UniProtKB/TrEMBL annotation:
<dbReference type="InterPro" id="IPR057326">
    <property type="entry name" value="KR_dom"/>
</dbReference>
<feature type="domain" description="Ketoreductase">
    <location>
        <begin position="6"/>
        <end position="185"/>
    </location>
</feature>
<dbReference type="InterPro" id="IPR002347">
    <property type="entry name" value="SDR_fam"/>
</dbReference>
<dbReference type="InterPro" id="IPR036291">
    <property type="entry name" value="NAD(P)-bd_dom_sf"/>
</dbReference>
<dbReference type="Pfam" id="PF13561">
    <property type="entry name" value="adh_short_C2"/>
</dbReference>
<protein>
    <submittedName>
        <fullName>Short-chain dehydrogenase/reductase SDR</fullName>
    </submittedName>
</protein>
<keyword id="KW-0560">Oxidoreductase</keyword>
<dbReference type="GO" id="GO:0016491">
    <property type="term" value="F:oxidoreductase activity"/>
</dbReference>
<comment type="similarity">
    <text>Belongs to the short-chain dehydrogenases/reductases (SDR) family.</text>
</comment>
Amino acid sequence: MDLHGKVCLVTGGSSGIGASTALRLARKGARVISASRRGSWQARSPLSRESIGLDVHFLKADVSEPEACRSCVDQVARDFGRLDILVHAAGSPVPGGLYEVSDECWMSAFAVHVHSVFHLSKAAAPHMAKQGEGAIILLSSAAGLRGCQGALAYGVVKGALPQFARALARELAQENIRVNCVSPGIIRTPFQDHLTPEQISTNVRNRIPLRREGQPDEVARLIESLIENDFITGENFVIDGGMSMRIV
């Protein structure tokens, strides 16, 4: 898919991987709508300066609400005349094990990470079908590949996304709409701000074979390539510096 002139909706686009993806796609000539609960770049983010001169727009939306998902997609299609690409990067940490996670946090995790994908995709697919092609990219996590101690709910909801991508890819292939999933490992984003320098050092030293954290733009480059390559669908791509391949 040639990105020039395409309309792309990026959820969770105010910071981190979502913001880096929005900028990268806009640099390729896409018309990008960054949707988030904030409705703008994260405060003090250098991304606001980098976006000058690019076709980037902002939309306030809480994707944990089904109606907000539907209205967000419909507004983009109405204002820009089409929708070609959906990148779902919205998410938040859900710390805690079995005895720490409350019922409310459990349900909220599914609303933000899983239910939103269903509602966004259901709303977006008809608009893509009108164009004769489309691409949907879901942001999962390496935490969803295997048990993640101290993050039960987060691992479960992220583990659901690769399967959703596979199932949806089979269903939408007849419409020439491709669906893929990306599972990042430890990436230097505000998502990691709660970690102490000691915890970061431990992660790098003991968990990541490449001995460094990933950068948001490295994930954004992978997302860009999956959108542009018309012969990839139904796959989950892990980008974690080798973390998930470790046995010990």
